[in-house]
TrEMBL record:
Keywords of this entry: Nucleotidyltransferase, Transferase
Record flagged with keyword Acyltransferase: no
Identification of the protein by name: UTP--glucose-1-phosphate uridylyltransferase
Family: Belongs to the UDPGP type 2 family.
Encoding gene (name): galU
Length: 298
Protein backbone atom coordinates (compact mmCIF):
# COMPACT_ATOMS: atom_id res chain seq x y z
CA UNK A 1 0.00 0.00 0.00
CA UNK A 2 1.24 3.45 -0.93
CA UNK A 3 -1.86 5.63 -1.31
CA UNK A 4 -4.00 7.61 1.10
CA UNK A 5 -7.16 9.58 0.36
CA UNK A 6 -8.06 12.60 2.50
CA UNK A 7 -11.60 13.92 1.92
CA UNK A 8 -11.47 17.70 2.48
CA UNK A 9 -14.44 19.11 0.59
CA UNK A 10 -16.77 19.84 3.52
CA UNK A 11 -18.16 23.34 4.09
CA UNK A 12 -17.22 23.51 7.77
CA UNK A 13 -20.51 25.11 8.76
CA UNK A 14 -20.03 24.30 12.46
CA UNK A 15 -17.15 26.78 12.58
CA UNK A 16 -18.74 29.71 10.77
CA UNK A 17 -17.89 32.53 10.40
CA UNK A 18 -14.24 31.44 10.79
CA UNK A 19 -14.63 29.02 7.88
CA UNK A 20 -16.38 31.44 5.55
CA UNK A 21 -13.10 31.99 3.67
CA UNK A 22 -10.76 29.55 5.46
CA UNK A 23 -11.15 25.77 5.07
CA UNK A 24 -11.92 24.05 8.37
CA UNK A 25 -9.01 21.72 7.63
CA UNK A 26 -6.69 24.72 7.84
CA UNK A 27 -7.76 25.78 11.33
CA UNK A 28 -4.60 25.67 13.45
CA UNK A 29 -3.79 23.26 16.23
CA UNK A 30 -1.43 25.69 17.97
CA UNK A 31 0.72 26.65 14.95
CA UNK A 32 0.09 23.82 12.48
CA UNK A 33 -3.12 23.27 10.46
CA UNK A 34 -5.14 20.22 11.43
CA UNK A 35 -4.81 18.62 8.01
CA UNK A 36 -1.01 18.55 8.27
CA UNK A 37 -1.24 16.22 11.27
CA UNK A 38 -3.35 13.88 9.13
CA UNK A 39 -0.85 13.87 6.26
CA UNK A 40 1.99 13.28 8.71
CA UNK A 41 0.12 10.25 10.07
CA UNK A 42 -0.26 8.81 6.57
CA UNK A 43 3.43 9.31 5.84
CA UNK A 44 4.45 7.75 9.16
CA UNK A 45 2.47 4.64 8.14
CA UNK A 46 4.38 4.43 4.86
CA UNK A 47 1.81 6.09 2.60
CA UNK A 48 3.68 8.73 0.65
CA UNK A 49 1.09 9.25 -2.12
CA UNK A 50 -1.74 11.44 -0.77
CA UNK A 51 -4.83 12.47 -2.70
CA UNK A 52 -6.84 15.39 -1.31
CA UNK A 53 -10.49 15.47 -2.35
CA UNK A 54 -11.28 19.17 -2.20
CA UNK A 55 -14.04 21.57 -3.21
CA UNK A 56 -14.52 25.26 -3.81
CA UNK A 57 -12.65 27.71 -1.54
CA UNK A 58 -10.02 25.10 -0.63
CA UNK A 59 -7.11 26.64 -2.52
CA UNK A 60 -5.23 27.43 0.70
CA UNK A 61 -4.83 23.67 1.31
CA UNK A 62 -2.96 23.35 -1.97
CA UNK A 63 -0.88 26.42 -1.17
CA UNK A 64 0.06 25.01 2.24
CA UNK A 65 1.53 21.83 0.77
CA UNK A 66 3.32 23.76 -1.98
CA UNK A 67 6.59 25.70 -1.83
CA UNK A 68 6.43 29.37 -0.74
CA UNK A 69 9.59 30.71 -2.35
CA UNK A 70 9.21 34.39 -1.41
CA UNK A 71 8.53 33.53 2.24
CA UNK A 72 11.41 31.07 2.29
CA UNK A 73 13.80 33.67 0.88
CA UNK A 74 12.66 36.23 3.45
CA UNK A 75 13.28 33.77 6.28
CA UNK A 76 16.63 32.76 4.83
CA UNK A 77 17.68 36.42 4.60
CA UNK A 78 16.88 36.80 8.31
CA UNK A 79 18.78 33.58 9.07
CA UNK A 80 15.57 32.28 10.70
CA UNK A 81 16.41 28.65 10.05
CA UNK A 82 13.87 27.15 12.46
CA UNK A 83 10.90 28.88 10.83
CA UNK A 84 12.35 28.21 7.37
CA UNK A 85 12.39 24.48 8.16
CA UNK A 86 8.82 24.56 9.49
CA UNK A 87 7.60 26.31 6.32
CA UNK A 88 9.36 23.88 3.99
CA UNK A 89 8.35 20.80 6.00
CA UNK A 90 4.78 20.64 4.70
CA UNK A 91 5.87 20.82 1.04
CA UNK A 92 8.32 17.94 1.51
CA UNK A 93 6.08 15.57 3.46
CA UNK A 94 4.51 13.60 0.63
CA UNK A 95 3.57 13.55 -3.01
CA UNK A 96 0.25 15.37 -2.73
CA UNK A 97 -2.39 15.31 -5.49
CA UNK A 98 -5.79 16.98 -5.73
CA UNK A 99 -9.17 16.23 -7.21
CA UNK A 100 -12.36 18.25 -6.79
CA UNK A 101 -15.68 16.93 -5.57
CA UNK A 102 -18.02 18.99 -7.71
CA UNK A 103 -20.97 18.85 -5.33
CA UNK A 104 -21.39 17.77 -1.70
CA UNK A 105 -22.93 14.31 -2.10
CA UNK A 106 -21.47 12.62 0.95
CA UNK A 107 -18.33 10.80 2.06
CA UNK A 108 -19.02 7.87 -0.25
CA UNK A 109 -19.11 10.18 -3.26
CA UNK A 110 -15.91 11.92 -2.10
CA UNK A 111 -14.15 8.55 -1.96
CA UNK A 112 -15.51 7.65 -5.40
CA UNK A 113 -13.80 10.77 -6.75
CA UNK A 114 -10.49 9.03 -5.95
CA UNK A 115 -11.20 6.05 -8.22
CA UNK A 116 -9.03 7.11 -11.16
CA UNK A 117 -6.06 7.96 -8.94
CA UNK A 118 -6.19 4.88 -6.72
CA UNK A 119 -6.88 2.31 -9.42
CA UNK A 120 -6.82 -1.36 -8.42
CA UNK A 121 -4.88 -1.01 -5.17
CA UNK A 122 -5.97 -1.11 -1.55
CA UNK A 123 -5.81 2.37 -0.04
CA UNK A 124 -6.31 4.28 3.19
CA UNK A 125 -8.91 6.95 3.94
CA UNK A 126 -8.13 9.49 6.63
CA UNK A 127 -10.79 11.98 7.67
CA UNK A 128 -9.39 15.40 8.45
CA UNK A 129 -11.66 15.94 11.46
CA UNK A 130 -10.00 13.14 13.42
CA UNK A 131 -6.46 13.44 14.70
CA UNK A 132 -5.01 10.25 16.15
CA UNK A 133 -2.18 10.36 18.69
CA UNK A 134 1.13 9.88 16.91
CA UNK A 135 2.09 7.31 19.53
CA UNK A 136 -0.88 5.05 18.74
CA UNK A 137 0.29 3.75 15.32
CA UNK A 138 -3.35 2.94 14.52
CA UNK A 139 -2.97 3.21 10.76
CA UNK A 140 0.06 0.92 10.74
CA UNK A 141 -1.91 -1.67 12.67
CA UNK A 142 -4.81 -1.43 10.22
CA UNK A 143 -2.46 -1.90 7.27
CA UNK A 144 -1.02 -4.97 8.99
CA UNK A 145 -4.53 -6.41 9.45
CA UNK A 146 -5.32 -5.81 5.76
CA UNK A 147 -2.09 -7.54 4.69
CA UNK A 148 -2.83 -10.56 6.89
CA UNK A 149 -6.57 -10.97 6.34
CA UNK A 150 -7.44 -9.07 3.14
CA UNK A 151 -10.72 -7.24 2.66
CA UNK A 152 -11.30 -3.81 4.17
CA UNK A 153 -10.52 -2.56 7.67
CA UNK A 154 -12.22 0.11 9.79
CA UNK A 155 -11.07 1.71 13.03
CA UNK A 156 -13.52 1.24 15.90
CA UNK A 157 -13.83 3.06 19.21
CA UNK A 158 -16.29 2.23 21.98
CA UNK A 159 -18.59 5.18 22.73
CA UNK A 160 -21.27 5.90 25.30
CA UNK A 161 -24.81 4.72 24.39
CA UNK A 162 -26.04 8.30 23.98
CA UNK A 163 -23.33 8.93 21.36
CA UNK A 164 -24.00 6.04 18.98
CA UNK A 165 -26.38 8.13 16.87
CA UNK A 166 -23.44 10.42 15.96
CA UNK A 167 -21.43 7.68 14.24
CA UNK A 168 -21.57 4.72 11.94
CA UNK A 169 -21.77 1.70 14.24
CA UNK A 170 -20.60 -1.87 13.66
CA UNK A 171 -21.95 -5.27 14.52
CA UNK A 172 -18.92 -7.38 15.42
CA UNK A 173 -17.71 -10.94 15.96
CA UNK A 174 -14.59 -11.80 17.92
CA UNK A 175 -11.46 -13.22 16.27
CA UNK A 176 -8.36 -14.89 17.69
CA UNK A 177 -6.78 -11.44 18.14
CA UNK A 178 -8.12 -9.28 20.96
CA UNK A 179 -7.98 -6.01 19.04
CA UNK A 180 -9.33 -7.41 15.73
CA UNK A 181 -13.00 -8.18 15.06
CA UNK A 182 -14.98 -9.34 12.05
CA UNK A 183 -17.62 -6.80 11.08
CA UNK A 184 -21.00 -8.36 10.21
CA UNK A 185 -23.11 -5.19 10.03
CA UNK A 186 -22.69 -1.44 9.66
CA UNK A 187 -25.35 1.21 10.27
CA UNK A 188 -24.87 4.93 9.71
CA UNK A 189 -25.94 7.04 12.72
CA UNK A 190 -28.52 4.61 14.12
CA UNK A 191 -30.99 5.49 16.88
CA UNK A 192 -29.65 4.41 20.25
CA UNK A 193 -31.99 1.42 20.52
CA UNK A 194 -31.18 0.20 16.99
CA UNK A 195 -27.38 0.34 17.11
CA UNK A 196 -25.73 -3.07 16.53
CA UNK A 197 -23.14 -2.24 19.21
CA UNK A 198 -21.36 0.62 20.95
CA UNK A 199 -18.35 0.25 18.66
CA UNK A 200 -18.33 3.31 16.40
CA UNK A 201 -16.33 3.88 13.23
CA UNK A 202 -13.81 6.69 13.62
CA UNK A 203 -12.17 8.42 10.71
CA UNK A 204 -9.68 5.80 9.53
CA UNK A 205 -10.36 3.16 6.87
CA UNK A 206 -8.39 0.72 4.73
CA UNK A 207 -10.48 -0.10 1.68
CA UNK A 208 -10.26 -2.85 -0.88
CA UNK A 209 -10.52 -1.34 -4.40
CA UNK A 210 -13.79 -3.27 -4.82
CA UNK A 211 -15.38 -0.45 -2.84
CA UNK A 212 -15.45 1.76 -5.95
CA UNK A 213 -17.74 -0.56 -7.91
CA UNK A 214 -20.03 -0.81 -4.89
CA UNK A 215 -20.11 2.97 -4.40
CA UNK A 216 -21.12 3.50 -8.02
CA UNK A 217 -24.24 1.43 -7.32
CA UNK A 218 -24.93 2.74 -3.81
CA UNK A 219 -28.06 4.92 -3.69
CA UNK A 220 -28.20 7.99 -1.47
CA UNK A 221 -28.79 6.99 2.13
CA UNK A 222 -29.02 8.94 5.37
CA UNK A 223 -29.20 12.69 4.73
CA UNK A 224 -29.65 12.12 1.00
CA UNK A 225 -25.92 11.44 0.66
CA UNK A 226 -23.92 8.49 -0.65
CA UNK A 227 -22.61 6.87 2.52
CA UNK A 228 -19.31 5.01 2.66
CA UNK A 229 -20.82 3.02 5.55
CA UNK A 230 -23.48 1.58 3.20
CA UNK A 231 -20.84 0.43 0.70
CA UNK A 232 -18.76 -1.19 3.43
CA UNK A 233 -21.88 -2.93 4.72
CA UNK A 234 -22.21 -4.56 1.30
CA UNK A 235 -18.53 -5.60 1.31
CA UNK A 236 -18.94 -7.07 4.81
CA UNK A 237 -21.35 -9.63 3.32
CA UNK A 238 -18.97 -10.72 0.55
CA UNK A 239 -16.41 -13.47 0.28
CA UNK A 240 -12.65 -12.71 0.09
CA UNK A 241 -12.52 -13.28 -3.68
CA UNK A 242 -15.30 -10.71 -4.16
CA UNK A 243 -13.91 -7.77 -2.17
CA UNK A 244 -14.93 -8.87 1.32
CA UNK A 245 -15.01 -9.16 4.20
CA UNK A 246 -14.61 -6.16 6.56
CA UNK A 247 -12.54 -6.26 9.75
CA UNK A 248 -12.38 -3.79 12.59
CA UNK A 249 -9.45 -2.72 14.74
CA UNK A 250 -10.44 -1.76 18.27
CA UNK A 251 -8.78 1.52 19.15
CA UNK A 252 -8.37 2.58 22.77
CA UNK A 253 -5.82 5.34 22.29
CA UNK A 254 -6.18 9.10 22.12
CA UNK A 255 -8.37 10.58 19.41
CA UNK A 256 -9.07 14.25 18.89
CA UNK A 257 -12.31 15.31 17.17
CA UNK A 258 -11.49 18.70 15.70
CA UNK A 259 -14.84 18.92 13.91
CA UNK A 260 -16.53 19.79 17.20
CA UNK A 261 -15.98 23.24 18.74
CA UNK A 262 -15.46 22.12 22.33
CA UNK A 263 -13.26 19.18 21.30
CA UNK A 264 -11.29 21.45 18.98
CA UNK A 265 -10.52 23.81 21.84
CA UNK A 266 -9.56 20.91 24.11
CA UNK A 267 -7.24 19.64 21.38
CA UNK A 268 -5.49 23.00 21.06
CA UNK A 269 -5.01 23.25 24.83
CA UNK A 270 -3.73 19.67 25.16
CA UNK A 271 -1.31 19.97 22.25
CA UNK A 272 -0.02 23.29 23.61
CA UNK A 273 0.50 21.80 27.07
CA UNK A 274 2.62 19.03 25.53
CA UNK A 275 4.92 21.53 23.80
CA UNK A 276 8.13 22.21 25.75
CA UNK A 277 8.29 25.75 24.33
CA UNK A 278 4.78 26.56 25.59
CA UNK A 279 4.07 24.36 28.61
CA UNK A 280 6.26 26.27 31.09
CA UNK A 281 4.27 29.44 30.50
CA UNK A 282 0.85 27.98 29.73
CA UNK A 283 0.40 25.37 32.48
CA UNK A 284 0.80 27.75 35.46
CA UNK A 285 -1.63 30.19 33.85
CA UNK A 286 -4.07 27.35 33.12
CA UNK A 287 -3.97 26.13 36.73
CA UNK A 288 -4.61 29.66 37.98
CA UNK A 289 -7.41 30.18 35.48
CA UNK A 290 -9.16 26.93 36.50
CA UNK A 291 -8.71 27.67 40.22
CA UNK A 292 -10.32 31.07 39.78
CA UNK A 293 -13.30 29.59 37.99
CA UNK A 294 -13.65 26.79 40.56
CA UNK A 295 -13.60 29.17 43.53
CA UNK A 296 -16.92 29.97 45.27
CA UNK A 297 -16.56 33.65 44.33
CA UNK A 298 -16.31 32.86 40.61
Amino acid sequence: MTKAVVPAAGLGTRFLPATKATPKEMLPIVDKPAIQYVVEEAVAAGLGDVLMVTGRSKRSIEDHFDRAYELEEALRAKDDIQRLYSVRESSELAQVHYVRQGEPRGLGHAVLCADAHVGHEPFAILLGDDIISEHAALLKRMIDVRERYGGSVVALMEVEPEQVSLYGCAGIEETAEEDVVLVNDLVEKPPRDEAPSRWAIIGRYICDPAVFAVLRKTPPGRGGEIQLTDALRELARREPDDGGPVYGVRFRGRRYDTGNKADYLRTVVEFACERPDLAAELLPWLREFVAEHDSPEA
